[in-house]
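Entry 12.
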Amino acid sequence: MESSSRAPRRTAQDELPERRSLEREVAQLWGELLDGREIGPHDDFFASGGNSLVGIKIIERVSQDYGVDLSVRSFYLAQTPARVAELIEQGRARR
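Predicted 3D structure (tokens):
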């Protein structure tokens, strides 16, 4: 009988708590840059008071904090912290 030393495969279920944590972090970042507003993972950037200057600041912080470069276009199309968290995860996976 052959023993495998490979680590078990991560499933989507395994990654859920990690994703939720990242979504909360991104929402907190948005709130910080949107004058301390309470932001949830599915809140819309512009409906929450976001503008182009704040968007650029968030993109810069994502680059600094997570090492992922988001394009302005992808950030604005994402619209919510949850979707930005997905972009961060995708960027991390490419490295």
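Annotation: The mean pLDDT is 88. DSSP finds four helices and no strands in the chain.
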